Amino acid sequence: MPKKASLRFRFLLGPLFIASLGALAILTPTTHANVITVNTTADDVIVNGNCTLREAIIAANTDTAVDGCSAGSGDDVITLPPGTYILTLAGAGENGTQTGDLDLTAGVTINGAGLHQTIIDGNGLDRVFDVLNQAAVTINGVTIRNGSAPTGGGLNVGSGSDLTLNHSRVTGNAAANGGGGVFVSGLLTLTNSRVDANNAVSSGGGLFISFNANAVTVSHSEISGNNTEGSGGGIFTYSPLTLVNSTLSGNSAGHDGGGLLVLESPAVALYNVTISGNTADADGDGQGDGGGVRVLGGLSAANTLIGGNNDNSSTGNQHPDCAGTLTSQGYNLVANVSGCNIVGDTTGNLLGVDPLLGPLQNNGGATLTHALLEGSPAIDAGDPGGCRDQNGNLLTTDQRGFARPAAGSPLCDMGAYEAGAANSPTPTPTATAVPTITPTPSSWNYLPIILK
């Protein structure tokens, strides 16, 4: 085709193409999300003109109006004002949100007013949230507490489902099997959040990540004060797990892995993580190893601090900080290397030294941290090329959100806390007692996972 004819053809085709797009837009329906606002802390599904949290979730799941809640439409947003929302409709095992836990079966975002202002209480009737049906769910600014279930006392993330939990807290929940706080069979992203004071009889006091889970990422978060009679006081994982700028502290296991147990996964990675004050073999019966971490799969670490953990073994074969093989990516501190086989890039590692940590407490930010005390060898001991995350991006803040490296410091610090960064303390979070479990229902039969 001659050049001029080609140009004329293009000019003719352009308007036709644009017109066809306009026609397509008219013919193709567009789904818009709806905002559903809860206006009561009551828990009911009766026609009385209000909009409860339970009714709002049913409306979002089914795209229909329910009592005073407007109909959902696509991926909805539920607005949850300040208040304590106590679940009162007993009846576990039902997946339509009519009784028991709150079943999330369609894409939805739940926005609370903040973890200190918006509290969802399971009242010991069932777990609090169950994410099912391959739903993609985001929960912002809430506390999830007092749930109780065979697995996932606070939250269950079902196979193929995707949960993002931001600026939230999972506390005081209990499970007879795995996952006192959260049981994951799908995908979980946890950011700027706390998972603390949860209890699982079998394993995974804080988090249990099952063998068929997609992946779990924990960043700028705190996993603390969780416990289990089995293994993995803080976290028990079979599947890929990434921790960035986070703290595992004060967790305990009757058997292996007070802070973290890596059972089979070849892909668990730590970036600027602090693991301290955790306890393995908490019952002292000699069956348990690795107060900080117990590695039976694959674990890599960069700019990470592991120290001040405990192994209560009465046999004298104590491995308080690390038991198993740790693949170093450089610039890690391991205070006690007994039982820990460190391989890989050992550049900049500090072994057998006291990290000089302060207690777990409010040092500013939304979560609790261990401060690096004056003279800590972890200060300015991070990678000279910069502390980085799993994608190779520079970590410009620490767990608290304060500048990394601190102003005037040449290098970043090891662990989740950056010494010398500007501090703007927030109110100290309130501790929650660890619940106990009486697994009476027949469906709660379990076998503890014991690793020897």
Task: Report on this structure.
This protein has 452 residues and is mainly β. The protein folds into 2 domains: 32-121, no CATH class; 150-428. Helices cover 8% and strands 30% of the residues. The protein has a 20-stranded parallel beta sheet that branches. An 11-stranded parallel beta sheet has the order 3-6-9-13-17-21-25-29-33-36-38, with no helix packed on it. The chain has a 5-stranded parallel beta sheet with strand order 10-14-18-22-26, with no helix packed on it. β39 and β40 form a beta hairpin. The chain is globular and about 65 Å long. The termini are far apart. Residues 1-31 and 424-452 have low confidence and may be disordered.
Helical residues, percent: under 10%
Instruction: Please report the number of helical segments.
Output: 2
**How does the overall form come out from the CA principal axes?**
globular
How many structural domains are formed by the residues? 2
Biggest sheet details = 20 strands, parallel
Summarize the structure.
The protein has 452 residues and is mostly beta strands.
Write the layout of secondary structure elements.
Blueprint: H1 3-27, E1 35-37, H2 53-62, E2 76-79, E3 83-86, E4 102-104, E5 108-111, E6 118-121, E7 129-131, E8 136-140, E9 143-145, E10 148-149, E11 155-157, E12 162-166, E13 169-171, E14 174-175, E15 182-184, E16 187-191, E17 194-196, E18 199-200, E19 207-209, E20 215-219, E21 222-224, E22 227-228, E23 235-237, E24 241-244, E25 247-249, E26 252-253, E27 260-262, E28 268-271, E29 274-276, E30 279-280, E31 293-295, E32 299-302, E33 305-306, E34 310-311, E35 322-329, E36 333-334, E37 340-345, E38 350-351, E39 357-361, E40 369-372
Parallel strand pairs: 1-2, 2-5, 3-6, 4-7, 5-8, 6-9, 7-11, 8-12, 9-13, 10-14, 11-15, 12-16, 13-17, 14-18, 15-19, 16-20, 17-21, 18-22, 19-23, 20-24, 21-25, 22-26, 23-27, 24-28, 25-29, 27-31, 28-32, 29-33, 30-34, 31-35, 32-35, 33-36, 35-37, 36-38
Antiparallel strand pairs: 39-40
